[in-house]
Amino acid sequence: MQSKENLLTCTEEVRVRFNETDPLGIVWHGHYIVYFEDGREAFGRQHGLTYLDIQKAGYVTPIVKSTCEHFLPLKYGETFRIVTTFINSVSAKLIYRYELFNQQDQLICSGETIQVFLDSDNNLCLYNPEFFQAWKDKMGL
């Protein structure tokens, strides 16, 4: 469990693009997973844990689980906020929680992704890689 004091979050504003919508102008459900990635990348830039940082350390982090719950639609031209929260775990994995809010501050969608660490030989890491543990220590996690 993680205390509220050391939750690491990032907020990114995004505008719905035309190519993300169906003929009714509503965002197609598959694009929400892409929005989650937008949130992860913004989180990495803000907190010093980008995919490039992970690759430089010799690891990749494939997603092994994703969940997504939809509450309200997003439409072409709307802007929304992605709030991405890192969920600390003792396991060697990256867990992110996402909340998408419209301009009226209504919850549009929420979800979570779980990524594991693979080394350069594609072996699953059972313990936190050294660079990741150093990052967690730096962040007070």
From TrEMBL:
The keyword Glycosyltransferase does not apply. It is an enzyme of class 3 (hydrolase). InterPro entries: 4-hydroxybenzoyl-CoA_TE, HB-CoA_thioesterase_AS, HotDog_dom_sf, YbgC/YbaW. It comes from the Bacteria. Its EC number is 3.1.2.-. Keywords: Hydrolase. One of its GO terms (molecular function) is fatty acyl-CoA hydrolase activity. It holds the Pfam family 4HBT_2. Belongs to the 4-hydroxybenzoyl-CoA thioesterase family. This is Acyl-CoA thioesterase. It comes from Chryseobacterium endophyticum.
